[in-house]
Amino acid sequence: MLAKIFEIPPSEVCAIGGGTEGAASVYFEENYLEGHDYPEELSVFPYRPSRIHSDVDLATAIARILGAGVLGSFPAGEPQAHIPFLWILVQPDGQRFKVLQRPECEPAIIIDRNSLTPWKPTSDAPPGRHMKRLFFRCDGGHYFQGACCPFDGWSMAGVAKAAEYFDTLGQSGEPQELEAMKALRLSDDLIQRMLIIEFGDENAIFEALAPERCLYQGKELLWSEADDTLS
């Protein structure tokens, strides 16, 4: 399989410890992992230029040949490459997803299927700055970016995941729209709390907002007077 992927003769592929170190173009090491969602671990060490430039390229080629999903680590330089327990799942049809490993199951590699979100490398994103930001409305009527409200600490299930996915959409060049957020299967309550703002200048971007009053259906309201529709 590796000879086919790297387009070299089979004699130039060698298992580490196979006794021909120094004579091969590609070395590999296999480990079989009992009780894992993905029971075979493959480490590959190419020593010649090829069209395979990252773990994702290799996972894509293997998934296509085996007809099965393959996990790969994030390429160096990707913004989320440092996040522990985060993998890229490549399907046989070439689709790629970010997926989280369940840390409580270590050392077994068991993935959280609910964490699947589409992934594209940042190199695929069009040039230019992304000026859209996703805000959430907390129970106190504040609007904030990120995982929780900085004014009162409010948060709810799905907020951090939605915030991360929105940033990923911008990095990959996908439309940053509420319709795209529905792919995460978030609760209706959370969707109704979302607000997307597109700023005209990056120096104008704020992280949170605590409005004092608003005009709603022609009536000026203090936030303290707003009903459940707005707060």
Q: Which strand order do you get reading across the main beta sheet?
A: 4-5-6-7
What is the H/E string?
HEEEHEEEEEEHHHEEEE
Low-confidence stretches: none
Q: Could you estimate the helical fraction of the residues in percent?
A: 10-25%
Structural class: alpha+beta
Strand content: 25-35%
End-to-end C-alpha gap? 58 Å
Count of spatially separate domains: 2
* Alpha carbon gyration radius: 23 Å
User: How many H/I helical runs?
Assistant: 5
SS elements, strand count: 13
Q: Can you summarize the main beta sheet?
A: 4 strands, antiparallel
Mean pLDDT: 82
Gross morphology: elongated
Give the secondary structure arrangement, pairings included.
Elements: H1 2-6, E1 13-15, E2 26-32, E3 40-46, H2 55-66, E4 70-72, E5 86-90, E6 96-101, E7 111-118, E8 132-137, E9 143-144, H3 159-172, H4 178-181, H5 188-192, E10 194-198, E11 208-209, E12 213-216, E13 219-222
Parallel strand pairs: 1-2
Antiparallel strand pairs: 2-3, 4-5, 5-6, 6-7, 8-9, 8-10, 9-11, 12-13
Written overview of the protein:
It is a single chain. The chain has 231 residues and is α+β, with helices and mostly antiparallel strands. It folds into two domains: 2-119, no CATH class; 132-225, no CATH class. Helix content is 17%, strand content 27%. It has helices at residues 2-6, 55-66, 159-172, 178-181, 188-192, and strands spanning 13-15, 26-32, 40-46, 70-72, 86-90, 96-101, 111-118, 132-137, 143-144, 194-198, 208-209, 213-216, 219-222. The strands form four sheets. A four-stranded antiparallel beta sheet has the order 4-5-6-7, covered by helices on one side. A four-stranded antiparallel beta sheet has the order 10-8-9-11. A hairpin with a 5-residue loop joins strand 5 (86-90) and strand 6 (96-101). The longest helix is centred in the last third of the chain and has 14 residues, at 159-172. The relative contact order is 0.10.
